[in-house]
Write a structure and sequence with these properties.
Layout (H helix, E strand, L loop, with lengths): L2 H56 L4 H4 L8 H22 L5 H15 L5 H7 L5 H9 L3 H5 L1
């Protein structure tokens, strides 16, 4: 093989190496972006949950919910349910982003379905859903609604 052909082949290999490295850098940038986005979502969720946790500790809840609290529930219970819905939205986002395993996600969904089936506090979900992403609301509202059967 003469030096001109060898030089041509080396240039082709170099171009492929350059393209491969650019693809790798692009994938790294996307992964970094996804991690940063999930981290931001987690931080916002944690702040809202901290506010709700304060309500639990002080036996306080949001003003629009106060008049609807059933006798067997306390304001702290209701603040805890608000906290649970905020956490569920975050868990759904983390699962969709690939940062939560399917097994952990299914456990979270089962627990939330149990909460959704408690008709006497369904008003908390109705209050909370305006703060949740549409994909979460669609998921929740696709679940069997045992409360609709009671009405």
């Amino acid at each position: 093989m003469d030096s001109a052909k060898l030089s041509d082949w080396m240039q082709v290999v170099g171009i492929f190496a350059l393209v491969a490295s650019l693809i790798f850098v692009g994938l790294q940038m996307k992964q970094t972006h996804d991690i940063a986005l999930a981290s931001q979502y987690q931080a916002r969720s944690a702040e809202f949950q901290a506010l709700s946790r304060t309500g639990v500790e002080a036996n306080w809840t949001y003003r629009p919910l106060r008049s609807a609290i059933p006798d067997q529930w306390t304001a702290a219970d209701i603040s805890g349910v608000v906290w649970a819905w905020a956490g569920f939205d975050n868990h759904h986002f983390q699962f969709q982003s690939g940062f939560l395993t399917e097994e952990a996600w299914k456990a979270q969904a089962r627990a939330q379905q149990e909460l959704y089936s408690k008709c006497e506090i369904r008003f908390v979900y109705e209050f909370s859903k305006i703060r949740m992403r549409n994909s979460v609301v669609e998921l929740v509202e696709s679940w069997e609604d045992s409360c609709a059967k009671k009405n």
